[in-house]
């Protein structure tokens, strides 16, 4: 297993390269690691070719970026071996932001720029490789967002831009103003919506690869006790047995087989879980196996 | 309050200018005004900068346009100070149209032209500033509608064209054939659908401002006794208290804050209600306040 | 009735001409005809101007194409008087395909080409006039499908290409890569979805005519005993009485009146049923009649 090497993907014509498996830092502060342990975790991920790390300003109650930056400061030369992704646009009610009285969005140019600059300070880096608008904001001005992105790019603070949880049409409206590198959306065998609404079709049409959050459905694939969860778990396990691959690897492979070239995020602090995700880049399911899992996910056969 | 002055908006690149608040004439015949009283109402609206008047052939059982025209005939010089909007395409079962045996649509070129010409006679004017297709017709031919519009324009009878209650895609299909000035749709804190389906996103993308009917939800915002109505009313009232603004003004301001630049219609015969709408052009809500009303409207926080 | 002659329609700018009524061969093997009887049936259809015959690899458990080819071999000169349509992309669990363990899709270039070549052998012809992808496949690569289509065209094996059961956006994504001749979808007074979702609007916008499967709702229009079925049947019967036309003809005329220029398929083995469909090309409903059937179909009047 030590020779596992995660391939890289160019997500769009604008040239952003990310590792096919992206390390999600959402829960890093729940892993209860010391800064040297965090650095060790990052180095293990890099050694497997997992070079892309996914953040957001709000993760860990506005705390994860600083924890990552603290570790990175122990070995600053690692910065050139990795891609750092962050997000902005949500304002959480949080002890760290006493001014926020209700969870809401802010996609004004001033907030986008201030949030990105704050992320840079927390992460102890001079640039982000990718900055995403976290959620589609009913008050967003497409022109203003594109303008803020352009200014961040000109100032050398952010190299590529994207969105998260956008519909096909919201993506295309912003993409007409500034070329977007990705749309990071939820997908798993327990959340197949973007396969059947226009999200993935639209991205494939444009040649833009989605990033995928919660590919394991937040763990419900392993322990969900509802009917759908049990049915899907059994189908995945059968394919895992047939292929002699770990359960988690089969889920990641099932997602990566989609033609839009998805880049799934890991969420676990167990480095072994990252390894299982990377292992999924080395095999694929037969079409029959792929549709067995889809049938279990939807509860019915294709028409 | 006497110095209130409603701003104007250019709705699309084709250059139609309307007042940001549009006086909806739908129920004018229920106001039970004499022609001189109607003229007085119109003059009071104009004095506030509310220069756009929204009609449809069918309003008041095919009767409102004539009532308006009767008032306008008392002071024909007012025509140059106003914009007149009308609609066509619905055939109502009505004592005024004994040939109609079922409510249906007719978007044939011949009906569009005949209906517009009839509106001109009723309104006692030689041109409409804006003509809308009232509802998307399952039998509509996009080419035929565009052809009828072009002919009305060439004949000097209608200056700009639009639609009402069209989906994003229906709008774009017709807009590819002839540039449309607006899509008049329903929106209020009790009807937020166009904020989340593609309607407003699509119009913002194209730089076309929507017109909004029933911004006060037909009065249900004031007196609806269901759970949603009570919850939304309380949220609006709290913002009204915070801003020291009338309840109705807050609703109009909430809608006008949307990035697609909506032009809300009034519906009331009380000139004070029009004044409250115009007052809404002079302030805005904080983002927190805006999202407080949205949360009440949807019954849940944003993700 | 002997002088009935079905008109032809050019379905898209690429120039495919089909008869307005298309003979659906789906259930041909259930008609229990000998090869000479099948030939006679085909000749009767051709004599009415029904020159287009709709197949799929999977019809009749992978058996109908061979039955048709067997009849055609009795009179090979008929080939030049007809258009043959087939489909590919579904893999059925069938005694004829023991390798298939689950119903699934395959839109890989290799399967599309192999399936089309197999259809040619079964149908005993050297080319298809039209080949459709039978269902949208979550694993389809738009580029690969377009590539397979181009190769089949260059090899002279298929002249035009299309899809079936695709959404507007799936259609447009593939159509941007290779011009598509049609989208064959379900529509009837008991299945009005494509009238109100974007399917027909999108095809009208592009000038592409849809083909329609199950225009008679699989017979439920005649004998369905649910409330909707009874209500729609009564509305159709009233129009049939008013126009002095057969019930089935009214249904076909109602569909063909849609502005996207639909080409409905027949499904019956009774040549009289084909005649009733062709007769529908010779009259139309009044708008009031058309909306009477729509109201019955939806259970409510238009807004």
From TrEMBL, chains A, B, C:
Start and end residues of each NADP-dependent oxidoreductase domain: 20-293
SUPFAM superfamilies on file: NAD(P)-linked oxidoreductase
Record-linked Pfam families: Aldo_ket_red
Superkingdom of origin organism: Bacteria
Name the record gives this protein: Oxidoreductase
Species whose genome carries this gene: Duganella lactea
């Amino acid at each position: 297993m030590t020779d596992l090497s995660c391939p890289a993907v160019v997500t769009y014509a604008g040239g952003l390269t990310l590792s096919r498996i992206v390390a999600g830092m959402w829960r890093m502060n729940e892993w209860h690691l010391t800064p040297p342990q965090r650095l060790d975790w990052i180095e293990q991920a890099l050694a497997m070719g997992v070079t892309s790390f996914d953040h957001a300003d709000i993760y860990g109650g506005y705390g994860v970026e600083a924890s990552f930056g603290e570790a990175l400061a122990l070995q600053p030369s690692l910065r050139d071996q990795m891609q750092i992704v962050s997000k902005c646009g949500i304002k959480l009610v949080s002890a760290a932001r006493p001014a926020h009285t209700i969870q809401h969005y802010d996609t004004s140019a001033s907030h986008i720029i201030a949030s990105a600059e704050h992320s840079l300070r927390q992460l102890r880096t001079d640039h982000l490789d990718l900055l995403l608008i976290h959620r589609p904001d009913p008050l967003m001005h497409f022109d203003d967002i594109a303008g803020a992105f352009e200014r961040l790019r000109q100032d050398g603070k952010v190299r590529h831009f994207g969105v998260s949880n956008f519909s096909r049409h919201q993506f295309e409206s912003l993409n007409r103003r500034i070329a977007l590198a990705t749309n990071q959306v939820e997908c798993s065998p327990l959340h197949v919506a973007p396969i059947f609404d226009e999200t993935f079709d639209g991205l494939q049409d444009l040649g833009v690869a989605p990033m995928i959050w919660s590919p394991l459905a937040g763990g419900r694939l392993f322990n969900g006790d509802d009917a759908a969860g049990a049915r899907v778990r059994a189908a995945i396990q059968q394919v895992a047995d047939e292929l002699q691959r770990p359960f988690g690897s089969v889920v990641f492979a099932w997602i990566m087989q989609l033609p839009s070239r998805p880049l799934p995020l890991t969420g676990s602090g167990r480095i072994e879980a990252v390894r299982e995700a990377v292992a999924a880049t080395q095999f694929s399911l037969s079409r029959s196996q792929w549709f067995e899992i889809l049938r279990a996910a939807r509860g019915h056969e294709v028409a």
